[in-house]
Specification:
Length: 560
């Protein structure tokens, strides 16, 4: 969609509309807490009828949210008497366990999921369809899909083919060839692919998964998966990590064990991100540097102490970073401002990381944690080590076990869930089942920074589809350009988030060729597209223009 001879009046109108929208969002009737440089919170919905255990942002600006189906009736009735029969808990269940949330209108509608999705996993394919795998009991080998639509006709579809193995507490990663790899699960030490290759006799055994399992605690469930720019897979479980060639079913190398004694995976639940891949400067023509970060967790034995003795030990206070592309990678350790377990880690459009949700004591599990971490923490990976962690303003709602979070196209963080109980329990003290949705506004969304925020007018791409290494331009308006505030363009692959791990999450910082001023408020940035499918797997990405640390509202691009 090209832009030619854009008139000053048109640009001015777009700019004014953008700023009025920003101000109306900040000054709406929602319940607001916090402010200043520490960000602020907005209560979006006091109840969506279900607890948000799993969350995925879709390319039509909607969010699919779902819980488990075996927790009894939810607080949201299914439409048109679409009841489920022979449920694990109820013979006839006429309540919803999934919703589709509309970001723009702040509304939601119930969806129908037939089998149990408890502690499952997912990825979005090239065409924007969520492929969701596994769960519990009748759902443990089920493959479900959800394809976005522009009306209210779309709903969950359960495929007739099944996974090779039960996948409960497994992790997924989208691959460069549009396949999805599904790794691990409770008492399952294998991996497999979707679409399934029916010519193969079974899944693939991965000894690493049984080697990292602690007797009585496990601590290797929901392994952290990151696709690296060389096409191999980084797999982290417990305290160990490997570089894995999933094509040859071969461990290429094992990385050093992360420092300290803390366990990092479920139920001693930490979190992990692949830090932004920077296709700038030398990285355009050479191997892209990749760095993984792991934060939080719990000491060995913490889960058993919480389960048997109701003793909630202090969670991990450490993070580790490792440049996995270095010839001799080593972990660099840092201390967080407070201990954290069950914390979500999300990449922000600026390249920073937000740590949000969770507790300071205990582990994941039923009533196994106390002392909620109400304060998010902003992590600035490019700052000096002593200035990297910045504590944000707190929420008023504890987000404990089975809470989740996701980055939205407007830069907010959607937060929901928290149900540390076997059933919905609204009278439990101090952590009742939580059905609300709220949004955290990072400091870059403060109203006083609106003049620094770009607004995208157009993208010069056919059907907003970019090919690898394709040069394209983005036109945007800006009230006040700061010469010292550089312009960057970032692509963010939305994550499937559950149990404190944002699967498939990815940020690619594109190479900016130049920035040209078109008029008083309008600018055009020329960029190189992503280099290849191992750097940016095919699919729908949120594209942000960032100026002086302030991101635009994203537009959706398809990379292929």
């Amino acid at each position: 969609m090209a832009i030619k001879n854009q008139s000053f009046s048109t640009i001015l109108v777009c700019l004014l509309l953008y700023f009025f929208t920003t101000l109306s969002l900040a000054q709406s009737d929602f319940e607001i807490s916090g402010g200043g440089d520490g960000g602020y919170w907005v209560l979006l919905q006091p109840s969506i009828g279900i607890s948000a255990m799993h969350m995925q942002v879709l390319n039509n600006d909607k969010v699919i949210i779902f819980d488990r189906t075996d927790s009894g009736p939810s607080n949201l009735t299914l439409l048109n008497n679409q009841c489920r029969q022979n449920d694990d808990v109820l013979y006839l269940d006429c309540t919803a366990h999934s919703v589709l949330y509309d970001i723009a209108s702040n509304t939601f509608r119930p969806l129908t999921v037939q089998t149990d999705t408890w502690c499952s996993s997912g990825s979005v394919d090239l065409d924007g369809t969520l492929v969701q795998t596994g769960g519990y009991h009748g759902g443990e080998r089920v493959i479900r899909t959800f394809t976005p639509c522009q009306d209210n006709s779309c709903d969950w579809v359960e495929l007739t083919e099944y996974l090779w193995d039960r996948r409960w507490y497994a992790s997924n990663q989208i691959l460069p060839d549009n396949r999805i790899i599904v790794v691990g699960g409770r008492k399952v030490f294998s991996y497999e692919f979707y679409p399934k290759n029916e010519s193969l006799p079974s899944s693939y055994y991965l000894r690493f998964l049984i080697e990292t399992r602690d007797p009585g605690e496990e601590n290797n469930l929901y392994p952290f998966l990151h696709l690296l720019p060389d096409g191999n897979l980084f797999i982290f479980a417990n305290r160990r990590s490997i570089l894995f060639d999933y094509v040859k079913n071969k461990i290429v190398k094992e990385f050093p064990v992360i420092a300290g004694e803390d366990k990092r995976n479920y139920p001693s639940t930490g979190s992990s991100v692949l830090l932004p891949l920077r296709l700038t400067g030398e990285n355009v023509s050479v191997t892209t540097e990749a760095e993984v970060m792991v934060c939080g967790g719990a000491p060995a034995g913490a889960f058993i102490k919480a389960e048997k003795d109701q003793v909630y030990v202090k969670a991990s206070t450490s993070c580790g970073r490792i440049k996995v592309t270095d010839p001799k990678p080593v972990w660099s350790m840092e201390l967080m401002p407070m201990p954290r377990v069950m914390t979500d880690m999300l990449l922000l459009p600026t390249g920073d990381v937000i740590l949000i949700n969770g507790a300071a004591n205990g582990t994941a599990g039923w009533e196994d944690a106390v002392n909620p971490n109400l304060n998010p923490v902003l992590y600035l990976p490019e700052e000096e080590p002593t200035r990297r962690f910045v504590v944000m303003n707190p929420s008023t709602i504890p987000r404990m076990y089975h809470s989740t979070a996701a980055l939205l196209p407007d830069g907010r963080i959607l937060v929901g869930g928290s149900n540390p109980h076997r059933r919905y329990n609204f009278t439990a003290y101090p952590y009742p089942t939580e059905l609300s949705l709220e949004a955290f506004h990072p400091p870059y969304l403060a109203p006083q920074k609106a003049h620094l925020r770009p607004s995208i007018l157009s993208v010069e791409l056919m059907d907003r589809t970019v090919s690898y290494k394709q040069v394209f331009s983005v036109t945007f308006v800006l009230a006040l350009f700061r010469p010292s505030g550089s312009i960057s363009v970032t692509l963010v692959l939305p994550s499937f988030t559950t149990h404190s791990f944002a699967m498939n999450q990815r940020m690619v910082m594109l190479d900016v060729i130049n920035v040209a001023q078109l008029s008083t408020f309008a600018y055009k940035v020329l960029v190189n597209g992503p280099t290849n499918a191992t750097v940016a797997p095919p699919g729908f990405y949120m594209m942000f223009v960032v100026h002086a640390g302030s991101p635009s509202h994203a537009v959706w691009l398809k990379v292929m």
